[in-house]
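User:
Can I borrow your eye for a moment on a structure tokenisation matter? Would you put together a sequence-and-structure record for a protein of your own picking? Please set it down just below, with no commentary around it:
AI:
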Amino acid sequence: MATTLQHLARWALQLQKDQIPSDVLDLAKMQHLAVAGAVRGLGDSALASQLLAAGPKRPPRGPPLSSGAPLLIGGHTSSAAHALRVHAALASALDYDEYMAFGQPGPGAVCATWMPSEGDLESAWVATVAANEVAARVGAACFFGNTAGQGATFVPGVAAIVASAHRQGVDEAVLANALAIFLDSPPVPTLQAVLGTGWSRATAVSTAVAQGYEALNQARGGLAGCVDTLDRRDGALARLSPLPLRAAFTGLGTAWLTRTICFKRLPGSVFGQVPLEALNEIFQRHIKAADKRLRCDQVHYLELRTSAPGFLMEQASATHPGLTPAVLAHSMARSTGALLSAHKLGTADMTPEVLASFSDRILQVASRVNLVHDWEQTVLLGDQLLNAFEPLFSGVTKAEVKAAMQHSRAIFGRLPMPETTEQLFKAIRARPDKLLSKIGTGSGRLEDARLDEWDWSCGAHSKVYSARGG
């Protein structure tokens, strides 16, 4: 009987274009554009120069791919491993790549296909879908993990292995062994990998992706891994999550997790997109009303009401002082300061050099931001998650979920209790207790998931109180 890894490997390698729904294939095409845009956005940055300099000596410029070597950002060629490492780092540095349920496979899935290959562009899209589906399932199995999908380095690492294997035409045994080698020794996916100093997210993801590519090379050379590692109680999942959700590995070819993909308008966490877009709209309206921008010293107070993931990410980022790109990408308060200071928020506005020039103003504004947890938004997000992915939580008991949430609290901290009577009644009316009643009742087959009902409901309320009034 095939192990879970062998089953995943067989499905991924046998996937053909005519088996993929057209909308899923279209999303993979957009995913390529999104990742390419994130890479290009930092192509002229100091980070890109440092990454290029850290690799093997680059040959002189010449016609693209004239040497049969992968083309690097900036027009150079290099080894496959170095090209993958550079592009994955740039794609993930500011959390500007795509986001899926569950994880961000793009830096691995997409960047691994940017290599000289026998296949054409369409085969790259197929390889990307295969990588998305396998890697997102590993991420879903580790839903109750150390980073709750944020900066989970093993997701893009798995994606890089699958996409590379699909493009190279290796056999099932090689892919299964490569995945086993990697999953039994992936970079530890801690919150520090997201919120560390400097370009920590870029280095964490690129290291994982390069490690995945090396695992594939080792498997091609004959090295074997424990291909039953996803099935063993003491296997890879036990280290990655306190409560593995094994139903995640079902539904291949019917439940297309690529359909859950979303693309961001701004660099940063998916949970900060709506609050920051709302603030940007407010700032733009001030320009229309007064024909000039709102200055940082004119802002007295800002209130952002958001759901639990955004609130907890802000709470975690607050323990990391300073204005590094990694922190800014996940701190709504400091991103608000950057948005108001630079009047825009793009990749060029989030490099260390630019941040240093606005640091006083950014921190001044950030100190005036009050982030409030909105229980109604949290319950809405949780309700949509369970409605769409009820089968994923099959067989899980309420006691196990509570224990896993205790594990998460140790990492992210606790949600605050409602501060006012009005907030308390709103929280009670939202009935967060009803969410737990849906746990453990699904079929355990991901093909029964209602993905057409899934939406990234990360709503927020943003308010700005300024000297201009309003």
Summary: The chain has 21 helices and three strands. The domain at 267-470 is CATH 3.30.1330.120 (60s Ribosomal Protein L30; Chain: A;).
